Amino acid sequence: MIEATLCFPLRGGDPTTADESDGEVLLIEKRRGLGEGWYNGPGGKCEPGETPRECAVRETREEVGLEVRDLEKAGELTFRLDGETHTFCHVYRTRSFTGEPTSSAEAHPEWVSIENVPYDQMWEDDRLWLPGILEGKTAVGEFRFEGGEPLDEADFVDHDLEWEVSLETAVDDE
Q1: Contacting residues for 120 by C-beta, under 8 A, at least 6 apart
Q2: CB proximity list for 122: less than 8 A, separation 6 or greater
Q3: Cα-based distances in Å from 165 to 52, 81, 133, 136, 141
């Protein structure tokens, strides 16, 4: 099983009311690896001894050059492939970051209007959980795929999704 993270930096909108209708989210177009050519948030696999929060900070720095802090845990997503757990993903969001997003060998970053997230160029399950995450909700979900490796070529077949679940909520300035 892979333990991984996704981080969604946000800007604009009204953070006091969770109205993100005129806000933007930083997405990346993956240039290599799992999900190549698709959009998602910066993130990746946790390294041995690394906390998920540390992973989200490191991966965002490596992929797009942003230094993120004050991460808010927004979701815990389990991805199952042919009945086996493939990936457990910790999802974070933040409005606190420094730097300007820059392209890397792994990712091309783009600020995208929350109203215009390109769900047709993302994992099929993203349209089920990401809108709520971007609205400020928390989620725990399980997403089932069938068809064998690699995961990004398997068929999405079913899911369970629970909203406004209490997650680890501590924020810190790593």
Answers
A1: none
A2: 38, 39, 40, 130
A3: 18, 24, 12, 12, 10
Cβ neighbours, 10 Å, residue 8: 26
pLDDT tens, position by position, 22-78: 799 999 999 988 788 999 999 999 999 999 999 999 999 999 999 999 999 999 999
**pLDDT tens digit string along 91-142?**
999 999 999 999 999 899 999 999 999 999 999 999 999 999 999 999 999 9
In the block, which residue shows the tokens 């909108």?
13
- Tokens representing 21 are 């209708």
* Residue 74 tokens, joined: 């927004």
**What SS3 state is found at 93?**
strand
Q: Which residues contact 16 (CB under 8 A, 6 or more apart)?
A: none
Residue 172 vs residues 52, 53, 83, 151, 165: alpha-carbon distances, Å: 13, 9, 35, 33, 20
Beta strand ranges found along 83-135 (DSSP E): 84-94, 96-98, 107-113
